Amino acid sequence: METKNNLLISTSPHIHSPISTTKIMWIVALCLLPAGVWGVFNFGINSLFIVLASVVSALLTEFIITRLLGRFTLLDGSAFLTGLLIGYNMPPDIPAFIPVLASVFAIAVVKQTFGGLGRNFMNPALAGRVFALFCWTEDMTRWSPSMLSASDAFTGATPLSQGPAEFLSKSGSYLDLFLGNISGCIGEVSVLLLLVGAAVLFLLRIITWEIPAAYIGTFIVFAWVFGGLTDGGGFFRGDVLFHTLSGGLMLGAFFMATDMVTSPLTRKGMIIFGVGCGFFTFIIRFLGGLPEGVSLAIILMNITVPLINKFSKPVKFGLVRDNNNEAGK
Amino acid sequence: MKKIMTFPMGGVHPPDSKEYSNSFSIRNAPIPSLAVIPMQQHMGAPAECLVNVGDKVEEGMLIGKSTGYFSANVHSSIPGTVKDIQEIYLPTGMKSKVVLIELEGEFRKPGSKSDDWRSASPKDLLDKIVNMGIVGLGGATFPTHIKYNLKPEVKLEYFVVNGVECEPFLTCDHRLMLEKTNEILEGIEIINKIMNPQDIYIGIEKNKPDALAVFEQTIGAKGLPFKVMPLKVKYPQGDEKQLLKALIGREVPSGGLPLDIGAVVSNVGTVFAIYEAVCLNKPLIERIVTVSGTAVKTPSNLKVRIGTKIGDLIDECNGVSKKPGKIIVGGPMMGFATADLNAPVTKGTSGVLVLSVREANLAGELTCIQCGKCVAACPLGLNPTTLYKLVDHGLYEEAKAESLFDCKECGCCAFVCPSHIPLVQGMRLGKFMVKKQKVK
Ligand code: SF4
Ligand code: SF4
After folding, report:
1. Nearest chain B Cα to A205, which residue?
2. Which residues of chain A does B324 touch, with a Cβ-Cβ cutoff of 8 Å?
3. Is the pLDDT of residue A290 over 90?
4. Disulfide: which of B120, B194, B225, B373 matches B416 by Cβ 3.0-4.6 Å?
5. Of the candidates A14, A320, A328, which has its C-beta nearest B332's C-beta?
6. How far is CA A172 from CA A36, A91, A169, A175, in A?
7. Ligand 1 near B313 CB (within 6 A)
8. What would the mean pLDDT of A302-325 be, rounded to a whole number?
9. What are residue B316's phi and psi, to 5 degrees?
10. What is the pLDDT of residue B116?
11. Sequence spans of domains, chain B
12. Low-confidence ranges of chain B (pLDDT < 70)
């Protein structure tokens, strides 16, 4: 690029679609906000501190590291988004040092070690959460009850750790699950508000249907066919509604599995990725020792993305010779 | 109702920005007092210069002779004296010999229209096209006679007239279709006589309903066997490959030509030039140029003599309304930016666009976030982000193996990239480096 008489010389194209990476990051963050507000409302002011602690420490870590590298990247919104998601994935009463360390780990180790935005192969927020889960398992699985739940919710159990039968008889209804009158991580409980945010992202074409649909669809099929076996009920008796509405499935499927950096490039690849996420979420939830499988499942699939990309290349134009014509042969 | 067609894979929807100029009739640009006429205005070998400094030339006189089959004739667009012969860089980055002609003397009287072609042989008509220096006016400037010179054993299935004009801002083909409908149709009849295809399609995008209507009507009234095909608006439908995929459902093989799938495509501007060449005995010395963009005071469609300076055209449109940030020769998706207001209009110049400073300023580049938007947008099913990375790392041969050379630089990938990565620039660099290594 050079300028003579102040006229810019650059390669075509000379116009550009209005979307930008920075806009994408901030819009995703904005679309996450309602669900977080609900979380604070539901679990109390302490959860706000948790979210703030993660955001601030993520931003600070990013700032310090990029500063050392002579860059400034806070405005691109990616560090903010990572911090926000880590906060959302924390239980409301966790000691604040855990989200702080999770954020530092996410930004410093998972993101910046590989060169910053776009180069990490795992979703930093999820890696941060899983890191915390392994280091401080007890803290990460101690839950405070929803303040809004009308029933006598007892401390120490999310709907998932209770299972459908116990939850529905003792703690709440499907509607509570949908609205978020339950215990769980700060940002994951309100399915309704997460769906509202996701709808906006769909309308703005920031996320496409492939990953969430394949993810949730696959999970539903497995939960329906086999879920009944562990919950008691048998084949084809899984409580699909309960399992889709609880845990971090919605947050994961719409906001974390769709992370562009760590998901495949093509539509075909995205569907494979989504199916994989759904399958592993099912495996971990129903057969693994952990009550929640979303984070691990997505991370697992993140790792396979280069492989998926290799096997889901787009079909090149002009290679299909089904042209049924004689002239060209 | 007719089915409205389009191509299935990739493509983008930039704002078409045609409203700036599509309601203005074509008017004559002033005759240049000095015409700068390049010998290289077409794809292929440059023409051989036939004149010397000091020579007197007439309007329409042959001054550059085609140097073989893959080349084209060049004519003087004005009467005058050859003032100088130089080598300059054209906005496309190509270096070319140019003949500078100073205006002087008489213009030709426009001849009366002749219908003799109806009794002429296809060979004579083809010769006319060669002599008159006709090349594709859609932008690629492929010498037309090569396309039309079919081997005797080939039976052409489709001839497609390209009235798509998918580049934003450009309206020269649109205006031509409205104002010269009869002439274009006669041009198609001439081509029909040369190649005798089984079917003739005229493809026009839906954002030109008036052009669709006038063609339907006139063809109906004249009882011609041509089919008007409405197309959905999508860039780059004006590309031969995408247009044929949309209309006849076949894919031009990688590295091949439309003829490989039984079709020949010509732009409406080319068809009109053929009409003028054959019926009026007029060489290709003028073309329609859209002067538009957000910073031009009076966007216009001008009939311009080849060799007119682009700066003169901007002046003819009352200059700029805002501080100009970028001048583009061609369309905004595939055109070339230039800072040289003396650059001449050539046979391939479909537009001169002036963008304001605000639009010209490039947004900062970020790293690739692997969003896949470029992959989804590529109409040729390439993987632009991977190609870009390969080129960036100097792995040119690997990029070539990933079909780098199929890329036609349509710009869809860079248009959608949220990180504003100059993907097309990468593709060009990659191709350049591969060619360079081959030369070594
Ligand atoms: S410029 Fe090349 S790579 Fe990019 S979309 Fe067009 S053909 Fe595909
Ligand atoms: S559109 Fe840009 S950011 Fe997205 S994958 Fe392609 S090159 Fe990367």
Report:
1. B373
2. 7
3. no
4. B373
5. A14
6. 21, 19, 7, 8
7. no
8. 79
9. -60, -25
10. 84
11. 112-279, 373-439
12. 1-2, 439-440
User: Among B365, B366, B367, B369, which is best to mutate for testing ligand 2, by the most ligand atoms less than 8 A from CB?
Assistant: B369
Which of the listed residues B408, B429, B431 should we mutate to test ligand 1's pocket, taking the one with most ligand atoms within 8 A of CB? Answer: B408
User: Of all protein residues, whose CA lies closest to atom 5 belonging to ligand 2?
Assistant: B370
Taking 90 as the threshold, does the pLDDT of residue A306 lie above it?
A: yes
pLDDT band of residue A179 (cuts 50, 70, 90) is confident
Binding site membership of B417 for ligand 1 (Cβ less than 6 Å): no
Q: How far apart are CA B350 and CA B377, in angstroms?
A: 24
- Determine the pLDDT at residue A229: 77
Q: Specify the pLDDT at position B181.
A: 96
Comparison of pLDDT for A142 and A295, the residue scoring more: A295
* Spatial separation of the C-alpha atoms in residues B103 and B113, rounded to whole Å: 27
| Ligand 1 atom closest to B412 (CA) | 5
Interface pTM (ipTM) of the complex?
0.87
Q: Whole-prediction pTM value?
A: 0.90
The residue whose CA is least distant from atom 3 of ligand 2 is B368
Q: Does the distance separating the beta carbons of B337 and A8 come in below 8 Å? A: yes
If you classify domain B112-279 with CATH, what class do you get? alpha beta
Which three-class secondary structure state does DSSP give residue B435? helix
Q: How far is CA A175 from the centre of its chain?
A: 23
Instruction: Give the percent of chain A with pLDDT over 90.
Output: 56
What pLDDT score does A324 carry?
44
pLDDT tens profile B357-371: 888 877 788 899 999
Which tens digit of pLDDT belongs to each residue from A193-246? 999 999 999 999 999 999 999 999 999 999 988 887 776 677 887 788 888 888
- The pLDDT confidence band at residue A156, using thresholds 50, 70 and 90, is low
Q: Which domains does chain A have, with CATH numbers?
A: 21-148+157-310 (1.10.3430)
Q: Give the distance from residue A155's alpha carbon to the nearest chain B alpha carbon, in angstroms.
A: 41
CA distance A2 to chain B (A): 10
For ligand 2, atom 2, name the residue with the nearest CA: B417
* For residue A322, pLDDT beyond 50: no
Question: Is the pLDDT assigned to residue A267 strictly greater than 60?
Answer: yes
Secondary structure of chain B in HEC code, one letter for each residue: CCCCECCCCCCECCCCCHHHCCCCCEEECCCCCEEEEECCCCCCECCEECCCCCCEECCCCEEEECCCCCECCEECCCCEEEEEEEEEECCCCCEEEEEEEEECCCCCCCCCCCCHHHHCCHHHHHHHHHHCCCECCCCCCCEHHHHHCCCCCCCCCEEEEEECCCCCCCCHHHHHHHHCHHHHHHHHHHHHHHHCCCEEEEEEECCCHHHHHHHHHHHHHHCCCEEEEEECCCECCCCHHHHHHHHHCCCCCCCCCHHHHCEEEEEHHHHHHHHHHHHCCCCCCEEEEEEECCCECCCEEEEEECCCEHHHHHHHCCCECCCEEEEEECCCCCCEEECCCCCECCCCCCEEEEEEHHHHCCCCCCCCCCCCHHHHHCCCCCCHHHHHHHHHCCCHHHHHHCCHHHCCCCCHHHHHCCCCCCHHHHHHHHHHHHHHHHHC
Contacts of A323 in chain B (CB under 8 A): 250-251, 261
Which pLDDT score is estimated for A5?
A: 66
Helix A97-104 and helix A78-88, axial crossing angle in degrees, nearest 10: 140
Contact check, Cβ <8 Å, A118/B256: no
